[in-house]
Amino acid sequence: MQFRNFKMVSYVVYGRGSFNQLDSILEPQRKGEAPMIFLVDYFFEGKALPNRVPLRGKDKIIYVDVTHEPKTKQVDALAAGLKAEFGTVSGIIGIGGGSTMDLAKAVSLMMTNPGSSADYQGWDLVKVAGVYKAGIPTLSGTGAEVSRTTVLTGPERKLGMNSDFTPFDQIVLDPELTKDAPVNQRFYTGMDCYIHCIESLEGTYLNEFSKSYGDKALQLCREIFLGQKEWTDSNDDKLMMASYAGGMSIAYSQVGVAHAVSYGLSYLLGTKHGIGNCIVMNHIEEYYPAGVAEFKKMVADNNIYIPEGICSGLTDAQFETMINVSMGMKPLWENALGKNWQEIMTREKLRALYEKL
Ligand code: NAD
Ligand code: ZN
Q: For the chain, does the N or the C end have fewer beta carbons within 10 angstroms?
């Protein structure tokens, strides 16, 4: 048995207002004149947050459009633009949701690794450390702040650059930054965390390491999302830690059915990660009976709409594409259903599930 020896984020600061420490955190990471580049979620353009970014010298803010989830083309263009403008940079700081954080990780790696980011979609293909990188979440739930991957859609596949060089050098967990997140978006991304917990805790890869983080994250999700309550600052505080703990849980286990099926939706239809997982979770009581029942209660308590019928009218060829993408996520299925997963989740069964969504 080979145990996973995984690389973690090097530095973590947590607390309301911890964003104000960014200048002093970055100071020792500056290399001469080489600028710090801040990739900021385009939602914040024209808002107050960019005024608090500690710009020095040739530092630059680049607003990133995250209407669609990150693409290898987008990463390559950002890295090429920075190389052309500055030669080298001191670091890449991602400020935003999972999409912006993933862009920051990938651009950091592509500042030093040759070729296209598409060449590195897979496991342990990155061989050279990127430039210094920091992640600052403004939405909580994906766990992208702690993970060793950056999920990218490339010309041939949707797959992460999974490597020991991918985790951030620093994360700044300041729950104040999430306070303006729209109710629906906050719920979808929060449910990503809830679903990570269910898939990890109900999976065959579970061990005490994953369980201890998963149990904690699940408890926090229940405190936040069960019952009809006003949203409070304390919920933002808790959800940020739930995201972190949920990410740590899957780091040592794996996700499961909702993610495996949702990857097919996102590849074919561009359905975003959080909402896609919710659409699938709504229909998989066969695999996670208690988790799905509780999820539906959370949806009702928070008065959230989960889209239905998104696969109606698709062609056979389109269903085949989704099935191929989903079936390719072998570790997810194995975690969910065990070594003989292919006997349980047949192509016919998966097609019937997609037809329900
Ligand atoms: P997101 O980053 O895609 O952002 C969703 C929307 O929320 C965007 O319109 C954005 O502009 C807006 N937004 C962000 N912060 C806001 C705020 N504070 N106030 C108002 N609006 C705000 O959403 P997400 O769910 O955080 O991330 C999903 C992405 O994360 C996907 O691309 C997915 O592939 C990736 N992901 C990565 C990992 C990983 O381990 N690397 C894990 C899970 C998901
Ligand atoms: Zn997820």
A: N
pTM over 0.90: yes
Q: pLDDT digit string (tens) for 260-294?
A: 999 999 999 999 999 999 999 999 999 999 999 99
**Taking the domain 11-178, which CATH number applies?**
3.40.50.1970
The pLDDT tens digits of the residues spanning 153-210 come to: 998 888 899 999 999 999 999 999 999 999 999 999 999 999 999 999 999 999 999 9
Q: Ligand 1: list residues with CB < 6 Å.
A: 41, 43, 66, 69-70, 96-100, 102, 138-139, 142-144, 147, 149-151, 177-178, 180-182, 185, 189, 192, 272-274
Contacts of 353 by beta carbon, 8 Å cutoff, 6+ apart:
261, 283, 284
DSSP letter assigned to residue 12: E
345: left (phi over 0), alpha (psi -120 to 50) or beta: beta
Chain centre to alpha carbon of residue 285 = 24
Within this chain, domains 11-178 and 183-356 share the same CATH topology: no
Ligand 1 mutation target, pool 165, 273, 277, 279, most atoms within 8 A of CB:
273
Dihedral in degrees, nearest 10, Cα atoms 318, 329, 198, 143: -100
DSSP collapsed to 3 states, 268-331: HHCCCHHHHHHHHHCCCCCCCHHHHHHHHHHHHHCCCCCCCCCCCCCCHHHHHHHHHHHHCCHH
**Rg (the chain; Cα; Å):** 20
pLDDT tens-digit series, residues 27-36:
999 999 999 9
Domain boundaries, the chain: 11-178, 183-356
CB 97 within 8 A of CB 66: yes
Residue with tokens 């799905």: 292
β-bridge partners, 132: 91
- pLDDT given at position 2: 80
Which residues have a Cβ under 8 Å from the Cβ of 248 and sit 6 or more positions away?
Answer: 143, 146, 213
In CATH terms, the superfamily for domain 183-356 is: Dehydroquinate synthase-like - alpha domain (1.20.1090.10)
The answer to whether the beta carbons of residues 101 and 94 sit under 8 Å apart is yes
232: which 2 tokens? 């409070």
